[in-house]
């Protein structure tokens, strides 16, 4: 468990943030300039805040009142940067083993083999970084951090420098890291899709302050938070893979409602998270007929959140969970939308992208095609 409560001022910017990061991946989520990287740098020991305390499992890394400020090399942290920052003259194997020098004890061979298997690094061990893709370099960087036996792993926008194909390659490995690694992960992102797939806990930041903390479904589904603006608002639903069909679609069971998605990697029976962007959801007062959209979720209007522009966010309670729809105020008035009104939420299958679906990482794990 990581506990952070710090205050610091950089000119006109004031950071005043307090939160706890339990096991799994805790994502610091917000717009550029909200204080995400500043918090990570404080945890890493790259600067001393004006006031506050940072501790891992009850051990103080920083305590302004007690005069405690451990240097970075004594904090037992693993750090994954935007770029892999591997040693170009060393093989993947030797880059991985470099992490052992920072471990408090000799890392057993079985642990090295486990990390190599978890991250799919076996075929890469004898290569040098110059022969690796961006996603492969990041996997090696994660492995090096893990083999330092850290109390905590810091990941500062580790996918920001990758194209969409490389992001899709590495996201399942971060899911495995979330599900299998002993050390908690503090992860910085401004991508709602990344947060929906990876986060165990979300800490939403705005102008240096924590505005909400909780599970991804709760934070991303709160229109009043919207760290990345209304276009980033969306619902996160959990569903079970029910079938894979010959036409390339996967059928999901979302608490009794059916969802059809482009084929997912997870096998039948696996639990997945599905992010539905509010801008892709339509509302109907009656069950739609003769319509191309396959996903129709009956529900009831919970709340209506008006913004400053012509749009509004409508929260709809369905059996699968809360779904958000972004519609114009004119449409909301024409339909006389109000809390308690029965409606149907409609979303096209092709509107849900592969990066919007994640879940049991060990089930989805596979070697990328070469």
From TrEMBL:
Residue ranges constituting the Mop domain according to the UniProt record: 290-356
The keyword Membrane belongs to this UniProt entry's keyword annotation: yes
GO molecular function, one term: ABC-type transporter activity
SMART domains: AAA
Keyword Kinase in annotation: no
GO cellular component: membrane
Entry keywords, A to Z: ATP-binding, Cell inner membrane, Cell membrane, Membrane, Molybdenum, Nucleotide-binding, Translocase, Transport
Domain ABC transporter: 1-232
Protein name: Molybdate transport system ATP-binding protein
The organism of origin for this protein: Albimonas pacifica
């Amino acid at each position: 468990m990581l506990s952070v409560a710090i205050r610091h001022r950089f000119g006109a910017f004031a950071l005043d943030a307090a939160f706890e990061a339990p096991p799994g991946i805790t994502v610091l989520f917000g717009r550029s300039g909200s204080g995400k990287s500043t918090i990570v740098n404080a945890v890493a020991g790259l600067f001393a805040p004006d006031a506050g305390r940072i501790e891992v499992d009850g051990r103080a890394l920083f305590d302004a009142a007690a005069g405690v400020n451990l240097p970075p090399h004594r904090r037992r942290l693993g750090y994954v940067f935007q770029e892999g920052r591997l040693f170009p003259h060393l093989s993947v194997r030797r880059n991985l083993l470099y992490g052992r020098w920072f471990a408090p004890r000799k890392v057993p061979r079985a642990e090295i083999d486990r990390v190599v298997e978890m991250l799919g690094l076996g075929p890469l061990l004898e290569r040098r970084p110059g022969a690796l893709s961006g996603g492969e370099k990041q996997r090696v960087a994660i492995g090096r951090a893990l083999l330092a036996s850290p109390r905590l792993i810091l990941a500062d926008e580790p996918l920001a420098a990758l194209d969409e194909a490389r992001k899709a390659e590495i996201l399942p490995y971060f899911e495995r890291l979330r599900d299998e690694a002993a050390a908690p992960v503090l992860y910085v992102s401004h991508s709602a899709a990344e947060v929906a797939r990876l986060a165990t806990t979300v800490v939403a930041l705005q102008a240096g302050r924590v505005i909400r903390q909780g599970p991804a479904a709760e934070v991303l589904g709160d229109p009043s938070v919207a760290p990345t603006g209304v276009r980033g608002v969306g619902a996160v639903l959990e569903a079970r893979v029910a079938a894979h069909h010959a036409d390339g679609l996967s059928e999901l069971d979302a608490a009794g409602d059916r969802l059809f998605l482009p084929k997912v990697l997870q096998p039948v029976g696996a639990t997945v998270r599905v992010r539905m962007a509010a801008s892709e959801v339509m509302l109907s007062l009656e069950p739609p007929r003769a319509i191309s959209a396959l996903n129709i979720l009956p529900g009831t209007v919970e709340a209506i959140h008006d913004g400053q522009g012509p749009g509004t966010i409508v929260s709809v309670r369905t059996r699968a969970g809360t779904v958000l729809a972004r519609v114009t105020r004119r449409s909301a008035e024409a339909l006389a939308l109000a809390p308690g009104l029965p409606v149907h939420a409609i979303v096209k299958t092709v509107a849900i992208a592969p990066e919007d679906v994640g879940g049991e990482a060990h089930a989805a794990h596979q070697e990328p095609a070469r």
